[in-house]
Amino acid sequence: MAGAYPPARKSLGQNFLHDPGVISRIVASIAPAPDDVMVEIGPGRGALTVPLLKVLNQLHVVEYDRELAARLPQLEGGERLEIHQGDAVQFDFDVVPGRLRVVGNLPYQISSPLLFRLAQYHERIEDMVFMLQKEVVDRITAAPGSGTYGRLTVMLAVSFASKKLFDVGPGAFKPAPKVHSSIVRLIPHADGSLDTGDPKIFEQIVRAGFTARRKTLRNGLKGLVDAETFAACDIDPGARPETISPQQWAALSRRLG
Ligand code: SAM
Question: Strand ranges (DSSP E) for 120-215?
Fold first, then answer.
């Protein structure tokens, strides 16, 4: 397929990396090894894909944009790509066998739903390295009690340890986004995920709790958690949701289940 790439589509979060220093730093953080089972979300024009393919024997990519997906085989090493054209949020990661390393410069508008989806696959994941909006990385890595600690923090923290690696300014992308970005690494806990009981109940109470962030737990979780359950879990019903650790959220959910 000859010719220039189509213009970047804002609706698909297409801010393409072009700074070689930033690209090598991200690839060094991923540290690919030839036999890794890796899935890159949103390969776009290949800024990360090509250097990853220099090392990997095979790379799975999930790209929504049909035109960009159609051009991927022409990248250097593109014959070793397994291309999945479609929405990464709906992608069935079980079609890729093995322990997964998931990476990508994520389209920012799908980052939260995609992370919630990937959390469901935590048992199959080796690690994940993502570029995200800096504010989202601050939420993922937040400590209980901080203003950025919330639903995303808790839903990921039960399965993964997270670490911010470095920040990236808007100038590293074309077109430049309005926001700053950060690289984050997520690694499943060595001793397994926290036991949250029924995942649906866990999801429901965490969502309800943080929807009413400024309410006490007693009010925010009215109808879901009663006084006895709070007492059995040694949780003050007058506390705010952001002061409750992932371990305590898991304990509440187990008790309800
Ligand atoms: N990896 C490239 C880079 O670093 O230059 C592109 C990154 S760009 C921020 C995000 C990429 O994700 C784009 O290629 C975009 O088309 C793709 N994308 C957007 N929404 C998607 C979705 N729902 N599922 C899969 N890919 C998506």
Answer: 125-133, 160-168, 173-174, 181-188
